[in-house]
Amino acid sequence: MTHNEIEQALRMARAYAAEKLPWFAPALYAARLVITDALPFPAGIDEKMRVYFNPQWVAQLRQQTNEQKTIAQLAWIWVHEICHRLREHGERAREKQTEHLLWNIAADLEINDAEWQGLERPSRALLPQLFYLPCGKLAEFYYHELAKLPNFIESLILPVWDEGSGVHGQRREWELPDDEPQAPPLTELEQEVMRRAVAEAIVRHKDRGVIPAGWSRWAEEVLQPKVDWKKLLKRKVRGAITIGIGQRIDYSLARPHRRAETYEPVLPPSLQGDFVPRVVCVVDTSGSIGERELAQALAEVRQVLETLRTPVVVLPCDAVPYEPVKVLTASQLLRLHLRGGGGTDMVAGIEAALRLKPTPDAVIVLTDGYTPFPNQRYQVPVIFGIFAPNGSSAAPKPPMPPWRESDVVVIPLTNP
């Protein structure tokens, strides 16, 4: 096969996988395809979402089977590789400080037991039952169990694929540099947005009986915000919103009361005015905010949006506030670009939010806490959502008084 034929086969396989498993399409098409002889194994993936294929192996596979089976197997491998990034195997490996080859096997066992209709699993793919282990477990479980076996790696008959930093977190020589223009890397934030897009698609398809239980649980965990904004808004903000709306409505004879016929000949007035709640989310975009914090902030904004079922204004702020953005739908959040990267002053963001016309009924501030806090309360309720690594209670908080504990919500943030 020529290089062009190999590339065409790989792109056809990706499209085939996206057609058969449409919930994975956001990740499949976000991945960069790299064809290289430097890869000593059939396929791999780096932490920047670049999927590598060895062209000699692809050509050999085509010689051994027909075109349909070749596409079906390549499609399976496409899904296999992007699943490593969806499950954040590289980050989890670094957190546990694992041995790379043993972790590679454990990570494979986590994702290989899923049955994908229309795709063909290669015969050498490792499955939990080969090692007398149960299916449906996480890589950490398999790693712990396999580590108990003496000389496990050496005892394997088939060589273990080293699939790269996207699986075990350790960069390999065959991986492209970050500044490679032909296959630009995906940032952590872009990958987090991709994960959420896949999770949303899985949730939409889960009632059709085609999603394995493990992937349904994964999707629910990805989409689950750390704060129950529905409960919090109901308890704290709803009252303020009600008051704010109350100031904007009054009785009027412009439109008849819906029960006007009951009161005839008396014409009762009806309530008229603006019933839509106004909430502004001030999002910390300073240099101390990493991509994971920013992704979590967007998840919280999404929950506020879905709770209120009305548009929410997002106001990015580092040392200065930036142009506010009115967000109408959750899908709009996926395309949102927030300016920032400088110093930190959430007071400037809060005051910019309060200057908006019309005035908001409530302001939610999402920050890591490393900012000056207001030394006074405002007429409009302000809630601080403070990101805390691993749920640490030592996260910076606004001074109390004048602020109260009920004004602060700690948002646990698990670091990779």
UniProtKB/TrEMBL annotation:
Q: Which residues form the VWA-like domain?
A: 279-390
CDD domains registered for this protein in UniProt: vWFA (cd00198)
Concerning Gene3D superfamilies, the annotation shows:
von Willebrand factor, type A domain
Q: Which domain of life is it from?
A: Bacteria
Looking up InterPro entries in the UniProt record yields: Put_metallopeptidase_dom, VWA-like_dom, vWFA_dom_sf
Ranges of residues in domain Putative metallopeptidase: 7-114, 167-271
PANTHER family, alphabetized: SLL7028 PROTEIN
**Could you tell me what this protein is called?**
VWA-like domain-containing protein
**Which lineage is the organism of this entry classified under, starting from the top rank?**
Bacteria, Candidatus Fervidibacterota, Candidatus Fervidibacter
